[in-house]
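hi! just following up on the protien thing from before. the input was this:
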Amino acid sequence: MARLSSIFLIIFFSASAALAQNYDEHIVVTGGPSIMEWEKYKIEPHDNWWMNFVRASRIRLAQLREQYGPSAYITWMVYGPGYKRRQAQEKENLFSIIDSVAKAYNLKLIYFKTADEVCDYLNRGENRSLYKIGSFDYFGHSNRACFMFDYSNEIGSASKCWLHETELKQKLHRGIFAKNAAVQSWGCYTGQSMSNLWRDATGAKMIGATCKTQYMTNELPVLVSSNGKWSTGQ
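and the predicted 3d structure came back as:
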């Protein structure tokens, strides 16, 4: 009888662990592209292709769906105002393309307008005692200290919508990430500083680049400098 009870407990806890793992939410955040009104005067303009960040996000979303299965909880957060402004210079409906990606991979799609909306969702978009964040990816413009969701989109070579490393402890809660959550910023330079403060604020390590990154067509962003690396900070 004791042996049967032990077997039952093993099965119960194994099932509970599997269920808890399935409850993890996977979140991808996508910033907006620059617009040519500002970039056309530069020697090396940003975002000639409006899909730079969307395409990279789609590649990652496909990986998440394949890795975690058809029932995995995947949320895609897209900076809506940036694509609305960029759409004015394009000859296609950008939102219909973004929506089609969400439909193809059965995602929860959220268009956000402010950095606070991103933080609020990370903190309490779901009950984080039940739905921990199992992975987080950021695709967009950044520097060593912040995510810039609208770089050179509303103002040339500047940003009005950002999440700065000095705000992280105030705006993000500890305990929202699952143990050993996979967190990565695919933007430029965040591995130099922001990764350190992200870990201090949330307890989760964030991989970031110590140099510029290049967004590709059919693969995830790559490091530009031969001396650069992907780093979780010091």
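Confidence is low (pLDDT under 50) at residues 4-21.
The radius of gyration is 19 Å.
cheers
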